[in-house]
Amino acid sequence: MNINSPMRLGDLLEGLAPVRQDVVLTGLTLDSRTVKPGDVFIALAGAREHGLRHAGTALAKGACAIVYDPQNAPVVQASLRDSVPAIAINQLGHKLGLLGSRFYRRSSDKINVIGITGTNGKTSCSQFLGQMLDACGIIGTLGWGSFGQLHETQNTTPDALTLQAMLAEFVREGKKTVAMEVSSHGLEQGRVAGIPFKGAVFTNISRDHLDYHGSMENYLAAKLTLLQTPGLLFAVVNLDDDYSTQILSAIPENVSVWGISATGRTVLGGETLQVAGISPISDGTCFEVIWRDVRRRVHVPLYGDFNALNAAMVLVVMLATGMELGPAVDKLVQLQAVPGRMECFGGADEPLIFVDYAHTPAALEQVLSGLRRHCTGKLTVVLGCGGNRDVGKRPQMGRIAEQWADHVIITDDNPRDEASADIIAAIRSGCRSDKITVIADRKMAITTALKQAGHRDCVLVAGKGHEHYQEIRGVRMPFSDRDIVRQTLKAAS
Length: 493
What we know:
By secondary structure, the chain is α/β, with parallel strands linked by helices. The chain contains 17 helices and 24 strands.
């Protein structure tokens, strides 16, 4: 995280803490293992341990200063205090965005950042925007960079320092806009603090991450903080979502409101794009959009009604940023599917196989109900649920799978530290029919589903999408649903 022109510690911490021993710094880092000479090591009060415990490593690697959160901090040894400036700042975690913004010369002010939040659709919408908007960068679950050229990230929304570094790189590359997934965790933990979002997009709100937030009220409240960004110009809201009223009421008066609806709802005092006639076709989906009394037919090479709505939401963002309806609609035909998001394999003389990240009840129902309209034969779903996560959704997902599919294979997802049999039993408890098969080994479950499917059938492999690992007892082992599907199809050809 270096920049060409150095900064002084006093300038970095101006207004936050007094600096008696000023030094020139060349970088900021939260990880003592990545410290380079001239870096400031920032030690946060972590959930498991305080970063200050790694100060010795940071100093040995050449840290020029240490900035730390005094909460639960171990005693700063005299030898540490004497060697480099060691400065305490209360609630440091929530000030990382400001520090990053200062260090990277407010690069985030020089680019239009559109934040996309919601339970489902964040990744698809950000990836679609990355394709539709000129000179558009992407930050999210699949990585950061340009569409098709992404660098890996550890979290949907990276830490505040990393985000500022990414935005600075985008500015250097000449990007004009960034489509950024903004998770509830990222909002709750202040990771996007210091970023002046120009647009906020709310895809939908449904049950997710209750193991972290505790309740839907807390989960929604975290999402709504995106609207508190100073300088926000527009907000896009799915009017058909159950929580749309709360979202609309939280939008500041000076922010332009754009709505999208497939049920005829409108935004008073704002703009509304109506969607109608969603129809599955052999190579994707067709639908109509109506805006300001102008009706246009849209064809996108994407499967599922929900993907048509994702594309329509992206269209609304294009309109909100100044694009005309005709050129925007014409451009949508160029959309490419997102890896692990209703990604289609097979076809012709083979069954249609879809790999999708659907790991919540709402997402699973959206995908299966959409595939039910596409599928002319039998529909099979392979699914599991992650361990150490919201246990209440497991029977719900079993019930939904049973409702929409002709055959359900329950298997492992990422069991993490839980027993596979317990997770499977919880999913199974929501089922009441004999269409259920349990195959704990995920690879065997996928290959079994594909081998049993006829050429007119559809198979959905749900839950892991783009992921390239399976986590069992703290160990991440290489595993890709997409690769297993490819290998099985190739072996059968």
